[in-house]
Structure formats: C-alpha cells, structure tokens
Amino acid sequence: MSQTVDRALSILPLLAEGPADLGQVADRLGVHKSTALRLLRTLHEHGLVYRQSDQRYRLGARLFALAQEAMENLDVREIAHAHLVRLNETCGHTVHLAVYEENEVLYIDKVESRYPVRMYSRIGKPVAITVAAVAKLLLADLPEHERRALAEKLDYPMYTPRSTPHAAAFLQELAKVREQGWATDLGGHEESINCVAAPIRGADGRVVAAMSVSAPNVVVTADELLTLLPLVRRTADAISGEYSGRTPAEPK
Predict the structure, then answer these.
(1) CA-CA distances (angstroms) from residue 188 to 92, 183, 217?
(2) Nearest-CA neighbor of 182 among 158, 201, 161?
(3) Residue 132 phi/psi, 5° resolution?
(4) Residue 180 contacts by C-beta under 8 Å, 6 or more apart in sequence?
(5) What are 183-236's pLDDT values in tens digits?
(6) In this structure, what DSSP letter does residue 125 have?
(7) Is residue 89 within 8 Å of residue 107, measured between CB atoms?
(8) Residue 186 forms beta bridges with which residues?
(9) How far is 7 from 67, CA to CA, in rounded Å?
(10) Rg of the chain, C-alpha, whole Å
(11) Helical (H) or strand (E) element with 214
(12) Could you tell me if 77 and 99 are in contact, meaning their C-beta atoms sit under 8 angstroms apart?
C-alpha cells in the first residue's frame, strides 16, 4: 500500500511540469500502463488530476482548492511561537512577532525579556509604523506602487531625533531593507530601545510576518544587539521553512 501511495503522489510533481499522457506517466513511474491508469483514475476520482479532451492529464482544480484552504488556515503565530521562545531563552531579550493587516502593523505574539527592564508593547497593539523594524520589513515587501501610496498617506511623528522624518526618507529606508533582507530600529521610537528584525516568508517568497529582538540600552548597546542578527535571521528562516512546508516541524 505504501508503494502505491508513493507512486500516486509521484504523479503530482510530474503533472506540475505540464500535461502528460498515460505513456509518459507510466515511463516516469517505471510501471506498466495499466498500473499508471489505475493510479490516475483514483486521483481523478478525488479531483486531484483531470483528463483533458486530448487524453492527457493535468493537475485538477481540487488540488488547488485544497492548497488554498491549507494556506488560509495556517496560523503563523502557532507555528512561530516555539521558535520565538527558544530564541528568547538563548538571548534573554524581548521577542516580537508582527503582521500587516488593514494598513496597520500589529504585534501578534510576544515573549518577555528575562531582564527587569521590560518593554510596554502588547499583543494586538499597532506598532509605530514609520520607525518599527518589523513594520519596515512588512511594508518593504509591498509592490512599489503600494509602498509609495502608503508612504504618502502616513504621518511622520518625530518620536526621537532618529525617527523617520518624511515619506522620501521612509521610502529610501524601505528600499534598503528590501535589498538587505533585515531591518533595525535604533532609537527611532524610544531613544533607549533598539531592535533588530527579520522576515518570515511563505511558500511564494512573500513576507507574511516579521519577528524581532528588542532590548534597552541599559541591558545591551545597539552594537551588541546587532551581533544577534545572524541568530534572528536563522530563527526567521526556520519559521519560514516550517510555515511554507519546506521543512518538517520540530518536536514541541
């Protein structure tokens, strides 16, 4: 039975390359045409493959519907949480997870610092969109026309002398973030707080969330926090792999 399932599943990546006839499927699987036909008929009955009028087979609409449903039901917070906790246990600093929804960047998870000085951020609270590192990553991934339109609509409060002053500077920062693949907030929202962040990507490569490590100057300097960037990026990559299905979930 396991061999039959393996053969049936092997047909799907073949058809992802384009329509194929019975002979091509049999050849790829290394089986007789009658065996290949039985497998194709079973997949056809479940809507996973479709037989065209020219007798070639292609991927069925049901397969795409299942994929879409699976993506819609993915909970990036649930997948990311264990990774965020491990990162926090390693570095000791506050770890955030954020997403972009309806023109706001929201924290959807937080693991508190082990140090006495804590951040006042809260799950469900919007971030300071023009300065926050997670916001820069999420907005940098937008198409250029959307980035420009959004930048022109935003206000640019000067929380500190290091805050982003205007749309042109913001767009320049987003372009830099988009190119380098990570972001920082070094005293842009609160002079005493620094942050480094990395993107979490879906199967299509688009940024679905962003995670960050933040710490006050009294605990670590900005330069010391920046040394954690490789660890932050590895954590984000691990979450991305699990979220997109490229790597198996680690045991909880």
Answers:
(1) 22, 12, 13
(2) 201
(3) -65, 140
(4) none
(5) 999 999 999 999 999 999 988 899 999 999 999 999 999 999 999 999 999 999
(6) P
(7) no
(8) 194
(9) 20
(10) 23
(11) strand 207-216
(12) no
Q: What is the pLDDT of residues 96-142, one digit of tens each?
A: 999 998 788 999 899 999 887 767 778 878 899 999 999 999 999 99
pLDDT band at 249 (very low <50, low <70, confident <90, very high): low
Q: Residues near 203 by Cβ (< 8 Å), separated by ≥ 6?
A: 71, 244, 245, 246
Residues 6+ apart with CB under 8 A from 73: none
* Rounded CA separation 186/130 (Å): 13
What are the contacts of 218-226 at 24+ separation with CB within 8 A? 218/117, 218/192, 219/93, 219/113, 219/115, 219/117, 220/93, 220/194, 221/194, 222/186, 222/187, 222/194, 225/93, 225/194, 225/195, 225/196, 226/184, 226/196
Q: What is the pTM of this model?
A: 0.72
Per-residue DSSP letters for 216-252?
Answer: ETTTS-HHHHHTTHHHHHHHHHHHHHHHHTSSPPPP-
Instruction: Report how far residue 247's alpha carbon sits from residue 238's, in angstroms, rounded to the nearest whole number.
Output: 8
Distances (CA, A) of 70 to 13, 66, 187, 235: 18, 6, 39, 23
CA–CA separation, 29 and 99 (whole Å):
43
DSSP 71-108: HHT--HHHHHHHHHHHHHHHH-SEEEEEEEETTEEEEE
